[in-house]
């Protein structure tokens, strides 16, 4: 599939859809570096019909860069997205994750927290913050952040599942069972997030 899109993209280098399909194909095959490079070419050499599409491609580029363990391109993509939309919670979240990869805890926590403040209705931002807090040994703070998230976004199965797992980790089986039951009741098909 990638070779088909590679041919189409080379024949039609100005066609955003072919370029995006090629990048998405690389993503599907978890070829993060190639996907990141294709998104980078796409955002650098394209004339976007609207800002939302450009921001979406910048988010994809940042995610691929993070998956490729390349925080610098992710930071550049996020900064460009924030220049287009200053209240873009997902870009702040990706920035925080980028600085975490660079082992800059102050900026990682600053941007991950900013993501939840700018857009408290975005589950990905809360989950990224909780993951970072957990990875840095701050399980109680991670639980607190997910409890705040559940108040902002009630009945979100992924948030509840993650909260339940953290309660288990912290030795609170009753609270864990409650959150896990709620998560499974909301979405029984996605038990293992």
Describe the structure.
The protein is an all-alpha fold. It contains eleven helices and no strands. It has helices spanning 2-11, 16-28, 32-45, 51-67, 71-84, 89-101, 105-118, 123-135, 139-152, 157-169, 173-186. Helix 2 packs antiparallel against helix 3, helix 3 packs antiparallel against helix 4 and helix 7 packs antiparallel against helix 8. It is elongated, with a radius of gyration of 18 Å.
The SS-based structural class is: mainly alpha
**Order of secondary-structure elements:** HHHHHHHHHHH
What distance separates the N and C termini?
A: 28 Å
- Helix content bin: over 70%
Largest sheet: none
Q: Care to count the β-strands? A: 0
Query: What is the residue-averaged pLDDT?
Result: 92
Annotation field: number of helices = 11
Rg:
18 Å
- So what's the overall shape? elongated
Secondary structure topology:
Blueprint lengths: L1 H10 L4 H13 L3 H14 L5 H17 L3 H14 L4 H13 L3 H14 L4 H13 L3 H14 L4 H13 L3 H14 L7
Q: In short, what is this structure?
A:
This protein is mostly helical and 193 residues long. The chain has helices at residues 2-11, 16-28, 32-45, 51-67, 71-84, 89-101, 105-118, 123-135, 139-152, 157-169, 173-186.
Name some characteristics of this structure:
single chain, 193 residues, mainly alpha, elongated
């Amino acid at each position: 599939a990638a070779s088909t899109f590679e041919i189409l993209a080379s024949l039609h280098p100005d066609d955003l859809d072919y370029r995006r399909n090629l990048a998405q194909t690389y993503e599907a095959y978890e070829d993060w570096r190639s996907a990141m490079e294709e998104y980078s070419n796409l955002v650098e050499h394209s004339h976007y019909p609207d800002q939302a599409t450009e921001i979406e491609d910048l988010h994809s580029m940042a995610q691929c860069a993070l998956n490729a363990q390349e925080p610098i391109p992710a930071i550049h993509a996020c900064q460009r997205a924030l220049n287009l939309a200053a209240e873009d919670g997902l870009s702040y979240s990706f920035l925080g994750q980028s600085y975490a990869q660079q082992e800059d805890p102050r900026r990682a926590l600053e941007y991950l927290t900013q993501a939840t403040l700018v857009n408290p209705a975005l589950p990905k931002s809360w989950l990224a913050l909780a993951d970072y807090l957990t990875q840095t040994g701050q399980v109680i703070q991670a639980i607190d952040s997910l409890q705040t998230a559940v108040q902002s976004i009630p009945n979100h199965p992924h948030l509840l599942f993650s909260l339940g797992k953290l309660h288990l980790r912290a030795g609170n089986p009753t609270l864990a069972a409650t959150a896990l039951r709620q998560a499974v009741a909301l979405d029984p098909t996605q038990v293992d997030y």
